[in-house]
Amino acid sequence: MSDGQKYLVTGGAGYVGSVVAAHLLAAGHRVTVLDDLSTGHRVSVPEGAEFIEGRIQDVARWLDSSYDGVLHFAASSQVGESVAHPEKYWSNNVGGSMALLAAMRDAGVRTLVFSSTAATYGEPATSPITEDTATAPTNPYGASKLAVDHMISSECTAHGLAAVSLRYFNVAGAHGSYGERHDPETHLIPLVLQVAQGKREAISVFGDDYPTPDGTCVRDYIHVADLAEAHLLALTAATGGEHLICNLGNGNGFSVREVIETVRKVTGHPVPEVTAPRRGGDPAVLVASAERAKDRLGWQPTRADLAGIVADAWEFVRQGE
Ligand SMILES: NC(=O)c1ccc[n+]([C@@H]2O[C@H](COP(=O)([O-])OP(=O)(O)OC[C@H]3O[C@@H](n4cnc5c(N)ncnc54)[C@H](O)[C@@H]3O)[C@@H](O)[C@H]2O)c1
């Protein structure tokens, strides 16, 4: 890893972006965070990063040739909201990314790492999901991210951009004082932790009659620090003219009930659960094959243990009490 590079981190006041920004700084890089604080938090911007409060749609004002690359996290990312307000997702995710690609072209910044998502695959019938699995998003959020992936591919082919899209599965855990504070929260582990904290009465289990060992949905949880390490490796692996797409997950699935049970054990608190009907669009199993990330990035997750992921997230939420 070469040191002393200068990177723009869009969305660096958010959950994943703040953790990656902290890792970049720790590796000796210079970091500028661009974030409009629409879902992010000023306190999440790591010390040592320059902070610009602004929108990616206006990124051309700040991006210049002094930057060695961009890590692009800024997006709207709530599935339910994307169904109710698709226009927000096309505008912010696709329109914002288009403005970013144009600014990068104009400034001659030729390296990009993009936060793509497992939602681009929709509900595949086969598991684990590889990058060759057909993309068939089932909501505007996943569709908007897939559209950005297509835009990036053509930018690489036509204009020589070096780009890596990382398709995250369920990001979880925390990195010291950097963790998940979405509002509204829609992710399972922080929601179950809210029950353990007494902030929420019970956790709803949406469907317990799926064809899985305990009947509840199985998902692939990846520690946010493992995810961050993949971003640093992606910066090194990015090659002019190529759009490399890599899934990021542990390749292990945990059921909703396993997550709840793990939270009970880690926190020592009771976690009442309520079984509710299935939600539309929830596939039984979503597990990643991350073989390509291992092969092309040299990435190896080291924090795959669910109890460890939950323990780090629990420590983070208790800091905020
Ligand atoms: N968290 C997950 O499990 C997960 C899974 C798959 C993909 N992703 C993707 O990873 C990225 C980061 O997710 P997160 O969980 O950290 O979300 P987050 O909401 O915590 O972070 C997104 C950040 O982008 C900022 N932002 C949004 N629109 C902006 C704009 N137009 N200009 C400037 N800043 C803007 C927000 O204020 C926020 O700080 C997103 O692109 C998301 O789609 C996340």
Describe this structure in words.
It is a single chain. This protein is 36% helix and 18% strand. It has two domains: 6-173 and 221-249 and 289-294, 3-Layer(aba) Sandwich (Rossmann fold); 175-218 and 252-286 and 312-320, UDP-galactose 4-epimerase, domain 1 (Alpha-Beta Complex), CATH 3.90.25. It is globular. With 321 residues, it is of the alpha/beta class. The chain binds nicotinamide-adenine-dinucleotide. Residues 10-11, 13-17, 34-40, 55-57, 73-77, 92, 96, 115, 117, 168, 170-171, 182 line the site of nicotinamide-adenine-dinucleotide (NAD). Nicotinamide-adenine-dinucleotide binds at residues 10-11, 13-17, 34-40, 55-57, 73-77, 92, 96, 115, 117, 168, 170-171, 182. GO terms for molecular function: UDP-glucose 4-epimerase activity. Its EC number is 5.1.3.2. It holds the Pfam family Epimerase. Pathway: Carbohydrate metabolism; galactose metabolism.
Spatial shape: globular
Order of helices and strands: EHEEEHHEHEEHEEEHEEHEEHH
Helix-strand makeup class: alpha/beta
Q: How large is the radius of gyration?
A: 19 Å
| Continuous helix count | 9
CATH topology description of the largest domain = Rossmann fold
InterPro entries: Epimerase_deHydtase, NAD(P)-bd_dom_sf, UDP_G4E
Domain NAD-dependent epimerase/dehydratase: 8-247
Catalytic activity: UDP-alpha-D-glucose = UDP-alpha-D-galactose
Subunit structure: Homodimer.
